Amino acid sequence: MVVYRERQQFFSKLAHRYSPSTLSAMSLLREDEIDLDLILELIVHICSSEPEGSILCFLRGWGDISKLDAMISDNAFFASDRFVVIPLHSMIQMSDQRRVFERPPLGVRKIVIATSIAETSITIDDVVYVINSGWSKEQRFDELVGLSSLLPVRTSKANNHQRRGRSGRVAPGVCFHLFSSLVNSTLADSQLPEMLRTSLNEVVLKIKALKQGKAEPFLARAMNPPSPFAVRRAIVSLQQLTALDEMEELTPLGAHLAHLPVEPHIGKMILFGAMLSCLDPVLTIAASLGFKEPFQYPLNRQREVDRIRERLSYGEESDHAVLVNAFKGWEESLAMGNEHRYCRDHFLSRSTLKMIAQMKGQFAALLHNAGFIKVASPFDIDANRNSDNWKLVRAVLVAGLYPHVAKVTKLPSRKRTRPPLLSTDSFKRVVFHVSSINAQKKDLSSGWLVYHKMVKTADICIYDATLVTPYSLLFFGGKLKRKESRGGVEVLLVDDWIKIHSPFKVGYLIEDLRAQLDEVLRRKIISPTMELRAAERRLETAPSTEEEKVGQLLHSIIDLLTNEVHTVAPEDLPESAGSADGDYDAEFGDDWMPAVPSPGAYGDKVLLTYHGSPVPPS
Known about the structure:
Layout: H1 4-13, H2 20-27, H3 36-49, E1 54-58, H4 62-74, E2 83-88, H5 94-97, E3 109-114, H6 117-120, E4 127-132, E5 135-142, E6 147-154, H7 157-165, E7 174-177, H8 181-186, H9 201-209, H10 215-219, H11 228-240, H12 252-257, H13 264-275, H14 279-290, H15 302-312, H16 319-336, H17 339-345, H18 350-369, H19 390-401, E8 405-412, E9 421-423, E10 430-432, E11 448-451, E12 454-456, E13 460-462, E14 465-468, H20 470-476, E15 480-486, E16 489-494, E17 498-503, H21 506-526, H22 546-562, E18 584-587, E19 591-592, H23 599-603
Parallel strand pairs: 1-3, 1-4, 2-3, 4-7, 6-12, 10-13, 17-19
Antiparallel strand pairs: 5-6, 8-9, 8-11, 8-18, 9-10, 11-14, 12-13, 15-16, 16-17
Helix pairs in contact: 13-14, 13-19, 14-16, 14-18, 15-16, 16-17, 19-20, 21-22
């Protein structure tokens, strides 16, 4: 950060080199933000005074690109066919991105407005002029609250060197750095190491798998060691995922996750997708979250994309269902020979969809090698018997995404266009990002949701969400506690903040099923060939083989998760606007669960004695 005194000293040293008018103009330059008006004037200057050659302008992100593109369109100087303006961003359609490599006709100036994607990932060989704003956006992980933020940051000296190198690849070029040498002297030599700006979950899990002892002293020996707090945050996150126990040792689940070369949450999701026989949709979601979603957002067509996404949800309150349905539609279009038309009409990237398909195949091969599915294919018949059961898929999402849980606290007034208000265990006020299909909903069927990506911008925003039901949170959530019990109803707490009212003994039932499933995973480590496949129906007699016992256990879990009818107690939803915020007129209270469906199916000791304790008798 450059302080006032340093600026004064800097300008006094330049007094003999530059005219008073130049120094006066320099003193007015706001170097703590991007000046788009200055960039526009510089582009006009290059176009009117400099020889032929394309222009590449580096900005922070999509917001800056949109604004500058609009400013150029509104400027009378560019109201001719002598200019072609091409935004370049990862959200832009691939066909539009390819335009940056096309050389314009003689007498036409190409102006590319880009993020740091044009810094090293691609080379545009006809660029002669580079405008470097000196800014970019960088993913930073806040270890205090476990939140990723996409923050505007000053580029490093190494970044600026790369940007300068983009000019004049095939001819002499010019780079305009829009910051002073004083600011340049304060810049870091290189970008912050990735270990210091991302979550350490995968790193800590690998340390445990390699039996390197405690994670904190091991990572303290790194060249750029992360803070002890960041390491502790990763350990707590893995414990919430039930990959580590209270002694920081691998659980049976953690041992399996450690052998999957994917982020632990994604790994848990695909494991449970295989065990509960809903593999294909879960692999689609896992691949999309692990890589990127296939939707593209052409400039000024955001609302069209939003309408397509809403249509692809087919009434489900889930951004993840949109991904599944979009991918399924693409597979059908491939079979019918109209892939290009389908992708064009639905604003989908063919290359991203193909990458997702490849990743699904790789995930299936990993599951096959670990003995979780019979055939190394996402379409394994036995692994997809429940793939049309969206309730079960939602429960598997809880298994993978927990503890990324949010509570719906307020619903918007029907007269307003505000998004519902949410909260998490760390933040009291969270909202859906505008791109989420849930952002403009006035009614939601559940008070709970899971998400993959939450980023702090102007607000704390959840980008993708699926509404889920209480049983899935109780079964796949964190540590379960039972509090007071009155009138046949008990209060269940998950990780001390998710509060659910439940019929008596449901807590015992879920604890027992969770313990039995953990035992199954432990035995799977010892015996990799052990088959994990849910039975298609409940046996009337006691299971006689190990395979039947496991099959009945998984069948009971599936039945529990999919037969639940979610309810919210009427007294927890006010009839009138009781909120201090006039834009909201309904507040969610704690969730209530109905009686366990088919009581005999879960109270039967035949099913609940795989490793010991049955549900306590009435």
